[in-house]
Amino acid sequence: MAFRSDLDALVLSVLQAESLHGYEIAKRINAKGETAFHAKEGQLYPILHRLENEGKIQADWIPQEGKPARKVYRLTETGKGELEKLVESWREFSLAVDSLLAPTKPEASRG
Amino acid sequence: MDKVARQSPINAFLAQSEQRLRGRISRAKIATTLAEAREHLTYRAEEFMESGLTLEAAEAAAAEAFGKPREWAKEILMSENYKPYLQAANNISIGGFTVFLFTAPLTVMAMADFGRGHFDTWLNVIQIAWIAFAIAVLGALVARRFAFRAFAAALAAAIVVTYLVVGISVKPLGKIMTQRMQILDTQVTLQDDLDRLKLGEQVYAASALPALVPARLRGPLNGPYTDKATSAANFIADWLHLPEADKSTFVSPTVSTAAPSAVKKPLGYLAPIVRSQPTPLGVLTRGSLQAVATKEIAAQRWREFGDARLAECARGLSELEKRPINHLTALQTLSTFKVGNFDSEIAEGISYMVFYQGLICLAFCFLHAMLGRFLHRAALLLSGQMKAPQSPLF
Questions:
Q1: Which residues of B touch A26 (CB under 8 A)?
Q2: Which chain B residue shows the shortest CA-CA distance from A64?
Q3: Fewer Cβ neighbours under 10 Å: the N or C end of chain B?
Q4: Residue B88 φ/ψ, nearest 5 degrees
Q5: Rounded CA separation B254/B252 (Å)
Q6: Which among B36, B74, B69 has a CA at the least distance from the CA of A26?
């Protein structure tokens, strides 16, 4: 189960390198081994629309020959800043979990 | 059902989703959203076909993997409400509706207090506009977030709540508040007259009755409106043996009071009042209360000892001071207005007001919803979403 901020981070990170359309975003996330959208692939689109409304990503309509135009998403400056925050937050969380899960050395006996 | 069954799974998914989105977001937004979904489903179905499924089975698998149309459409609608201006509108709406719920009974009290005063028109306009605004903003909130069906249900609920709150509180609150206001005013008036008497000033107050209106007064009082006040003043002044010079201080029965309707009835009672200074006509009702409450003391003395009215009134008012008007007296007094039925008139007036408020509220809701729709579409246009190409569905 993924939290909303995790899903946001996944989407934003996939868009970090290049502009992509919805299906490609889902494929890239799945290719990374993420199972966030396996159960409901359609869940991706409300997230994309929300991020777009929040100004973190921007959509452009790219015409295609012989096919309907395609909606392609790209990261905005706001989105980049948000991604940095989410990555930083994840690192802190990850470090905290790692430190908790790391095997502890037995304390030297006193006396 | 057959029509849906004949559709391909992808088309069926899109049709069901479109049905749930229709009317809740703009047609352009629906078109682009469904076009996007169609593209995803088509690619996904092709992948399933590459793994050996038939077209029908592949489309069904793609649609199933995408999610249920109802849930997907709901999430799409929710994602549309993350716009900052909608969030702001939601917060304003919640605040407005909360204030409205708390203040609905207060508006009734305000109407009861001022309904018969000089400012009632302006106060009513303010009250109506305010309540209409609160309900309209609530309507806009519901319309934007939950769309038409839920909007209609919430609006109906809001109206029911409004009418329950107002309906339950209107009669007792209106009655109590009006009576208390009348009592307070009467006590102030009497005290003022007593103070003037103690200072030796001429006071014509507390000259009252209810007495059967003499038949000779009925004709002039029922005459043309322009002559009514003068006629009434002259005739009643003569009847009470008022000196000619004092007629200008006489508060005569006019429209919008219980008095004119009283004198028009065969057995109507009239409760005139004479004061030391010209008084707004609206004071007549309070004066009537004062007058009727003092009927055993002052009225008879006025009529029997008109020539020595100052001394007699002073004595009457001194006696009255020992019998302060209380709530029970006021109730008895108001109940003597058999003809006008004072309480019923107030309740009836407020009921009409509530009815008109409801109508105006509905009108405001409609206009506000239309305005919200217009602004929503304008925002979409400005953001360029309306320029997007149409989906194959449209």
A1: 40
A2: B389
A3: N
A4: -65, -45
A5: 6
A6: B36
Per-residue H/E/C for A41-91 = HHHHHHHHHHHHHCCCEEEEEEEECCEEEEEEEEECHHHHHHHHHHHHHHH
8-state DSSP, B255: T
Instruction: Go through the domains of chain A in sequence order and give each one's CATH number.
Output: 6-89 (1.10.10.10)
- The torsion of the CA quartet B377, A64, B47, B28, rounded to 10 degrees, works out to 10
Predicted TM-score (pTM) of this structure: 0.43
SS3 A106: coil
* Chain B, nearest residue to A45 by Cα: B76
8 Å CB contact between B49 and B55: yes
CB contact under 8 A, A71 and B32: yes
Tokens of B238: 């003569």
Amino acid identity for residue B216 in this structure: R
Phi, psi of A61 (to 5 degrees): -95, 120
Record: contact B36-A45, CB cut-off 8 A: yes
Q: Which residues of A32-52 are buried (b: 16+ CB within 10 A; e: fewer)?
A: eebebbeebbbbbbbbbbbbb
- Residue B276 contacts residue B200 (beta carbons within 8 Å): no
Selecting from A41, A68, A69 the residue whose C-beta is nearest the C-beta of B66 gives: A41
pLDDT tens for each residue of chain B, 394 residues long: 444 456 789 999 999 999 888 766 778 888 889 999 998 999 999 999 998 889 999 999 999 989 999 889 888 887 876 555 555 555 555 555 555 555 555 555 555 544 444 445 555 555 565 666 666 556 555 555 544 555 555 665 666 566 556 555 555 555 555 555 655 555 565 566 556 556 655 444 333 333 344 445 445 444 444 454 455 545 555 544 444 444 433 333 333 333 444 444 443 333 333 333 333 333 333 444 344 333 333 333 333 433 334 454 455 445 545 544 444 444 444 443 333 344 455 555 555 555 555 566 556 556 655 666 566 666 656 655 444 433 333 2
Q: Which of B259, B275, B257 is nearest to B317 (CA)?
A: B275
Report which DSSP code applies to B117: S
Residues of B in contact with A69 (CB under 8 A): 388-389
Q: Which of A23, A37, A57, A78 to mutate to test the interface with B (most CBs of B within 10 A)?
A: A23
